[in-house]
Each structure stands twice: as structure tokens, then as C-alpha cells.
Amino acid sequence: MASVTLSEAEKVYIVHGVQEDLRVDGRGCEDYRCVEVETDVVSNTSGSARVKLGHTDILVGVKAEMGTPKLEKPNEGYLEFFVDCSASATPEFEGRGGDDLGTEIANTLYRIFNNKSSVDLKTLCISPREHCWVLYVDVLLLECGGNLFDAISIAVKAALFNTR
Amino acid sequence: MAMEMRLPVARKPLSERLGRDTKKHLVVPGDTITTDTGFMRGHGTYMGEEKLIASVAGSVERVNKLICVKALKTRYIGEVGDIVVGRITEVQQKRWKVETNSRLDSVLLLSSMNLPGGELRRRSAEDELAMRGFLQEGDLISVQAVFSDGAVSLHTRSLKYGKLGQGVLVQVSPSLVKRQKTHFHDLPCGASVILGNNGFIWIYPTPEHKEEEAGGFIANLEPVSLADREVISRLRNCIISLVTQRMMLYDTSILYCYEASLPHQIKDILKPEIMEEIVMETRQRLLEQEG
């Protein structure tokens, strides 16, 4: 996501290549780069994961705490997402620059994990209307190299899988 | 749309795979090179407590009485007569500022630049105004470097150098580019490569007409054929795999690596296991060729 200035000829070359389904590094338009997944990296969390997708590096930590269920869903626990775009990820994230992107990604994550098939929220409930588990999911962008949504969703899934 | 996941593996130390007999004397900053005071200090060393101590991380080179340490990973340090590939960052009054992966931005004076058509005349005021028409921010050029006062001064005096057209740029560390007689190579596989001494490597389709060298100002914007594109992408991936395995880059090594990669698909070359396999094969072929 760091902006690179390219000459006109390079842009034309890249665009023509993509039109023929061949990116500059030989991949097709729908091929992924190499993905590296590692779980249980952060010791003081209930679950964590680190995902490297090309130059993109994401670290996710999950902490489970007790809380009260939401009023409209008394039988379920819930997830809280927080995305931190660190300033070292890319020069554009200096200061307050990364906050907008962080909130956008957090909202997307809420929508993704809001349905029954991804995480069964009923299992997070301890006693209805009184106690439930709240999973605080913290996402940290270490390095920004494109395709953030995919990498973050893989990392969150891996971290939740790793949560005990 | 299948995805492959892998677990991170510890990187194998380089010495296991090298198998070379000559061991280079590698030092890190603070290491003592020698306690013999008869040597002269070169770059990368300093004298402290009657010992010669290294100030950069690299290999020790000794020429008679001169000891210097050549850094392994450094920014480009210009030498007279080098060929570099640079990207224009700024257009200023009588010159362009060029980014060449060195400590300071390099300068390209208007008077050191070819005019379109190859004419020779004094640059007038209109030329200055038309500077932006020649080269804009983001343009890539190939130039010859003249080193002066820390900042590299560039010139493109012959028609071989100048603005580059369509192609792919690969950025590597300058210490991996081997010094050779010529840095413009036409590889038999169908693409040409410019190995800039500053670590910028430009891969482009071989132009059919030999009169129109890489220095023309009007960039050829016609679509490049798919076969040429595949050759260029494969070369790019080969160069990246050679770089990750810290091998020197020159036309023979790139060519061998290209031939070793032919059985694999282009996008597979990016996978770590296949990268190692290809570079191992390249290394063997190069050793056979030398020995």
C-alpha cells in the first residue's frame, strides 16, 4: 500500500499483462502469494496467530474474559475486534493515518463474524442473561504489503482456532 | 481457488549449502582484524588501542599492505564508469534528481543528457522549459555514473543510455551485482536485461530493430506479446530466487537459473522449496563450468 511512482511505460506494461491474466511475477489474476501461518506466538493470550502473505505481516491475539451478555442476545457471548495499524507498517500510517483503515477493517470483521457458521456464539454463554465469555480480538498490522482483508481474516480464524 | 498454507521453517544457515573451500574472513563491527600495525587502514576499518577494528559487517580484503572491509549489505556507492538504472524523483531547474539506491539522490544535469534526435547543441532556455517533457517523475533511465563529492553525478552521453520503455524493475542489494565488462545483456531466451551497479535490474523485451536502442525518448507503448511476458516474469522470479540465496548476479548465473526453472510453472518459482532446488542446480552448473 506504500505508493510507488511508476513510469507510464511500466504502467502500460502491467495493465496489458493483467488483461492477459499474467501479473508481473507470473501469477494469474486469482493466484495467491505464499502464505505462512504460525499459531501460539504470544504467550500471555488465550490464543494468537501470525500470518505472512508476501510482504504483509499480521499478528492477532485473542483474550477471553468474563462479561455480561448483550441485552438482545442473552444466550450468546460476543466478540470485540480492535485493529491497530502500527506506524511501522507503512509511512502512510504515521500518527493518526492508520485509524480510518483500522475502523474500516474492524467493522468488516464484525460483519464477517456475526453469523452462525463462523463462530458458534451460544457456546460462549455460561449462564443466560448473567455471564458469558467475551473474546477480545486484537489485530496488529506489522507490515502492509497488500491484501489486508484476506490476511487478517485468515489470522483471526487461526487465532480463534488456537484459543483454549 | 485453492490456497496453499505453510508453516514457517527456520532458515538453513548459508554455510551448509555453500560447500566452498575458500572461507572468506567475515567480520562484524567491533571485531579485531589484526594486531599487526604494519598495515594501512582502508574503508570500513578504524584504529583503536593499537588494533585494527572493523566498523562495518562484511568480508576483509587485503591488497598488499592495505586492509579494507567490504560491506555485504550497503547502499550503492558510486564509482566512475558504473552503469546504473535510476528513477526520476524530482524535476529541478537545470537538472533532474534521480533515485539510485544510494545515500544521497543522484543528479542528472540537463547538459549531460542526450537530446532527442541525437543532436549536439548548447542547451537553451527552451530546453529547460521542456525538461518535463523529456523525463517525468517515475521515469526509469539507464545512465553512466560519475562519482563526485558524495552525490553521484550521472550522464547519458551515448544513445545506448536514456529513458527506458516497457519492462520490469527488480531491486536487489548492490553488492550482489558482479562487476563485468558490459551490463547490457541480450539473453537467448528472448528478453534483455540491464544489470545496474546500484542493484536496480531492468528486464525488458528485446527490441526487434537494432537501431532503436533502449535510449529512445518516445516509449514504445504497444502491447508486449504473451510469450515475451512469460519470459520476463520467469526471469524476474529467477533473479529474486538468486537474491534470496545470496548468489552473485551476472548473465551466466541468470541464464542457468532460467534454464533450471523451465520445468516448473512461473508462479511455482516463488515457493521457497522450489527456489532452493533451482538455485542448488544453478550453483552446481556454475561450479562445473569453472572447474
TrEMBL record, chain A:
The record's subcellular location field reads: Cytoplasm; Nucleus, Nucleolus
One biological process GO term for this chain?
A: rRNA processing
A single GO molecular function term of this UniProt record: exonuclease activity
The record's listing under Pfam families reads:
RNase_PH
Q: Which SUPFAM superfamilies match?
A: Ribosomal protein S5 domain 2-like (SSF54211)
- Belongs to which family? Belongs to the RNase PH family.
Write down what this protein is called. Ribosomal RNA-processing protein 42
Instruction: Tell me which species this is from.
Output: Homo sapiens (Human)
